[in-house]
């Protein structure tokens, strides 16, 4: 049986996968490609998560694409709007027809002799293989099939309903019910005010506080600019304002953490009643940006607390009871429904087994090259976004960069690229310096980073613009070559010599 062969296979049809398709189509138009999506729909995260209030946790002017600007007034958008935006983008640039739904990639094997990847694909009950020269992984950073839920003593005794946001049942009726949301991250602070609109009462139960920052759901600066300037110019200014403002806040937090910490806590204190214990419930023990900040649009969480529709309890769970949760402090929380907003399971490439010349590769044993390629794995890149800014900012840069690499290989009649790790860079540091539980649980499975370029990963958009768009492709670390069996005959060899050729 003949295997279908393509120049590039993109895995995943979420934000990153659609970006990859766009750049392949516009910047490497001679390459054949398809997008394999394991689920039945476009959207990735934004199609998967359906819990109440689901929304962006960064501004849409940077989460949206540069090639299809986000022109809505919503700076913080709801999940359905984001999903429609991704779908509309795919349709607008004729990418939907490039997607093969319910095609889940489970393995990928590189052959140096053949100069290509063999990709194992599950489609329904069938498993088949495709081949490609380059593999672009746009699978996000967590396992889609399940979220993280700790073991809770006595949970089997609880007579109410327990649900994880990643497996939300849209038929769940919580109107007039007592709800406990376990967690304090972005999902929890989204769920609490949304469910509090119908529930009798919602309690956010956290072991420790998180930094929570309120911002307008609609950007007043953008609204003013749109009235005074042409739409495209207003968008560009708004986008760069968002980029520079987030960078300023991040580095200010690094330079003067106490200043930023006190500012965030003081802003929360002003939003809440005098009897709310801000020191206990909203004052973390870590510095800002040691974990990702949580955004709440138009102070919706603080409003729900002020109106007594919701509250925050900081404590540890002793065990579940038939009708709620017993805390270590002795307090009992009555509940009809418990939502375990307890995090994600970080999984690079969605657990796809990568093999190079018969050797199974463990991604945790590799080093990240510019946050895009992996040491000693040929012709493979993955789109991985920022931890301190929107995902799409870096994902787009990586997709553009992959096209630069592909075009370089075309121009010089080459078909293989690998980031070769030398001995001096063999030791590295954790690629993510977050203290968040979901990151710490996964450190052993994540690639490491080096101590200097190009192996060091910078959470800095301006540095990455230079590294991805303007730096020389032939930087002395990337090694380009041609598969011997595909080498042109001398009379057909009109290629331009590459460095070291």
Descriptive report:
The structure is a single chain. With 501 residues, the protein is α/β, with parallel strands linked by helices. It has 13 helices and 25 strands. The protein has helices at 15-27, 45-48, 60-63, 79-92, 186-195, 220-228, 231-255, 257-271, 278-281, 300-306, 391-411, 437-440, 461-470; strands at 4-11, 33-36, 99-100, 104-111, 116-123, 126-137, 161-163, 178-182, 201-206, 212-215, 294-297, 310-314, 317-321, 324-327, 332-334, 337-340, 353-356, 359-361, 368-369, 373-374, 380-382, 416-419, 429-430, 448-449, 478-481. Strands 1, 2, 3, 4, 5, 6, 17, 18 and 21 form a nine-stranded mixed sheet that branches. Strand 4 (104-111) and strand 5 form a beta hairpin. The radius of gyration is 24 Å and the shape is globular. The two termini are 37 Å apart. Residues 488-501 have low confidence and may be disordered.
The amount of beta strand, in percent, is: 15-25%
Number of discrete helical segments:
13
Tally of DSSP β-strands: 25
Query: What are the low-pLDDT stretches, counting only 5+ consecutive residues below 50?
Result: 488-501
Separation of termini?
A: 37 Å
Oligomeric status of the shown chains? single chain
Structural class: alpha/beta
Query: Which range best describes the helical content: under 10%, 10-25%, 25-40%, 40-55%, 55-70% or over 70%?
Result: 25-40%
Radius of gyration of CA atoms, rounded to a whole number? 24 Å
Mass-distribution shape: globular
What is the overall pLDDT average?
90
Largest sheet: 9 strands, mixed
């Amino acid at each position: 049986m003949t295997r279908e062969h393509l120049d590039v296979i993109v895995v995943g049809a979420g934000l990153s996968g659609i970006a990859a398709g766009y750049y392949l189509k516009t910047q490497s138009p001679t390459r054949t490609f398809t997008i394999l999506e394991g689920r039945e729909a476009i959207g990735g995260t934004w199609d998967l998560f359906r819990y109440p209030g689901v929304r962006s946790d960064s501004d849409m002017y940077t989460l949206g694409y540069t090639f299809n600007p986000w022109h809505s007034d919503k700076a913080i958008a709801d999940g359905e709007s984001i999903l429609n935006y991704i779908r509309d983008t795919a349709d607008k640039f004729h990418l939907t027809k490039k997607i093969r739904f319910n095609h889940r990639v489970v393995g990928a094997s590189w052959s140096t002799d053949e100069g290509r990847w063999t990709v194992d694909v599950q489609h329904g009950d069938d498993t088949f293989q495709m081949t490609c020269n380059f593999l672009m992984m746009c699978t996000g950073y967590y396992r889609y099939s399940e979220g993280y839920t700790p073991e809770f003593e006595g949970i089997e005794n609880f007579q109410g309903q327990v649900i994880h946001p990643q497996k939300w049942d849209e038929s769940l009726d919580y109107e007039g019910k007592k709800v406990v949301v376990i967690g304090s991250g972005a999902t929890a602070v989204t769920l609490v005010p949304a469910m509090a609109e119908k529930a009798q009462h919602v309690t956010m139960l956290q072991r420790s506080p998180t930094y929570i920052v309120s911002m307008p759901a609609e950007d007043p600066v953008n609204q003013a600019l749109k009235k005074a300037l042409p739409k495209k110019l207003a968008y560009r200014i708004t986008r760069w304002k968002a980029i520079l403002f987030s960078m300023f806040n991040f580095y200010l937090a690094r330079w003067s953490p106490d200043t930023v910490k006190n500012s965030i806590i003081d802003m929360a204190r002003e939003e809440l009643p005098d009897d709310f214990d801000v020191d206990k419930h909203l004052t973390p023990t870590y510095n800002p940006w040691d974990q990702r900040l949580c955004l709440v649009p138009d102070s919706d969480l603080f409003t729900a607390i002020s109106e007594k529709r919701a509250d925050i309890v900081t404590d540890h769970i002793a065990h579940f009871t038939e009708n709620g949760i017993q805390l270590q402090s002795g307090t009992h929380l009555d509940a009809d429904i418990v939502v375990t907003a307890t995090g994600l399971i970080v999984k690079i490439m969605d657990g796809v087994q990568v093999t190079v010349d018969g050797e199974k590769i463990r991604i945790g044993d590799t080093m990240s090259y510019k946050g895009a390629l992996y040491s000693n794995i040929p012709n493979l890149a993955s789109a991985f976004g920022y931890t301190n800014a929107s995902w799409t900012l870096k994902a787009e840069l990586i997709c553009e960069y992959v096209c630069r690499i592909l075009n370089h290989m075309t121009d010089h009649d080459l078909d293989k690229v690998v980031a070769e790790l030398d001995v001096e860079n063999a030791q590295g540091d954790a690629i993510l310096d977050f203290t968040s539980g979901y990151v710490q649980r996964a450190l052993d499975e994540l690639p490491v980073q080096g101590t200097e370029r190009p192996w060091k990963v910078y959470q800095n958009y301006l540095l990455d613009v230079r590294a991805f768009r303007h730096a020389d492709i032939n930087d002395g670390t990337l090694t380009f070559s041609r598969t011997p069996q595909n080498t042109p005959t001398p009379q057909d060899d009109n290629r331009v010599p590459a460095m070291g050729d």
